[in-house]
Specification:
Length: 393
């Protein structure tokens, strides 16, 4: 497929819509899952944690499988596998097998999210065109976050967990119907070169992605608790964070395509650092909400700046594996930083977790210099071209 793709036509928006529906189903079920396990199934608080957490382990492993699946069998196969797994997750939640059904559902959910994201990301970017990859990723991220954000509202409207699970099945099936009607033009390139170049090169952008996302479990787990002592504006601040990220990814997602992606990457890191530093200080409500909005706005740019840059330098037969590996770094760092944030907060206080996230952004800034360095690109891209799958740089 050429670097220009087909543009933002009907095929592109059909894929965005299917992605939105898949993540809407996940968002519909998730908020009610804990109470369902605790009260309907009689599980303990520890069981709730284990059921929720098994998703991350399965998703992390599945990302390393979903990438090669998309490269070898096609983007559509990965996308369909993800949506099918999401539908099976909803079915598992409804099985009369107690806690086991919740575990099975979360495992299917982990597999589904990994395959859905990998297949969607590559297919959407290639359809929209690599030269507009950041904008395509911005639209896709808006669909994902829109689905996750609207899901809890739908779940609350439905009233019961079983109805939410049924809705997840229905939404996944509708998305499957949409995807199966979208033609795919991907053809796997024929080459036998080992992918050692990819693994070596992806370590640097992977670490950059990981360090950028250290802040996420801090915000998700400790923002409300931290601000409860400083005007209790945590919920409003989190809403501002999510809203600015959603809006800016939709309307400004193409900035890394129109200017040097290093500029949007480092500008995003600077805004994120500013927001985190202000939040760490325990500001009054108005300033806390503003700082969270700045943080969300800044967070809109690093992922698309890195991924679009890397995909332009990656042969078409390796792009699925590339997304899978980079997403695995995200899962790994989010999981580790969640534990680290809990330990730091318990030792020094909630403010220290925000400072930890700022320090991590320093690591992201350091790794970014390797990702965007032109000399580094030319030196490491050579083996790919030699393999018979020319770089799209």
């Amino acid at each position: 497929m050429g670097s220009n793709g087909e543009g933002f036509g009907g095929r592109f928006w059909a894929l965005i819509g299917a992605t939105f529906l898949g993540f809407l189903g996940m968002g519909t079920v998730l908020p009610a899952l804990g109470p369902h396990i605790r009260y309907d199934l009689g599980g303990s608080d520890q069981t709730v944690g284990l059921v929720i957490g098994v998703f991350s382990f399965v998703a992390l492993g599945a990302r390393l499988v979903s990438g090669p699946l998309a490269d070898r069998r096609g983007r559509k196969i990965a996308f369909v596998t993800g949506l099918t797994s999401c539908a099976l997750a909803g079915v598992a939640y409804l099985l009369p097998v107690g806690i086991a059904g919740a575990y099975i559902g979360r495992m299917f959910q982990g597999l589904g999210e990994a395959c859905l994201y990998t297949g969607a990301a590559i297919w959407i970017v290639e359809t929209g065109g690599l030269d507009r990859g950041s904008q395509a990723l911005g639209y896709m991220s808006s669909g994902i976050w829109g689905g996750i954000s609207a899901g809890p509202v739908v779940g609350q409207w439905l009233g019961t967990f079983n109805r939410a699970a049924e809705m997840q099945v229905l939404l996944a099936v509708i998305a499957l119907v949409i995807v199966t009607r979208v033609p795919e033009h991907y053809r796997r390139p024929v080459h036998t070169e080992a992918h050692t170049w990819n693994l070596r090169w992806l370590l640097k952008p992977g670490l950059a992605v990981g360090f950028v996302n250290v802040h996420y479990p801090v915000i998700a787990g400790f923002l409300i608790l931290h601000l409860a002592r400083h005007g209790n504006s945590g919920r409003m601040a989190f809403s501002a964070y999510a809203l600015l990220m959603l809006v800016s990814r939709f309307f400004l997602g193409g900035l890394p395509d129109r200017m040097a992606p290093a500029i949007t990457y480092y500008s995003g890191l600077a805004l994120m650092s500013l927001g985190l530093i202000v939040l760490a200080s325990g500001p009054p409500p108005a300033l806390a909400v503003s700082a969270a909005a700045v943080l969300g706005f800044g967070f809109s740019f690093p992922w698309s700046s890195i991924l679009a840059t890397v995909l332009r330098r990656t042969a078409s037969g390796d792009r699925g594996s590339t997304v899978g590996v980079l997403s695995a770094f995200y899962d790994l760092f989010v999981g580790m930083s969640a534990f680290a944030a809990g330990g730091v907060s318990g030792w020094l206080g909630y403010w220290a977790a925000f400072v930890m996230a700022v320090v991590a952004l320093g690591g992201a800034a350091f790794m970014g210099r390797f990702v965007f360095a032109e000399k580094n690109v030319r030196e490491e891209a050579a083996p790919v071209s030699a393999a018979g799958s020319p770089s799209l740089q």
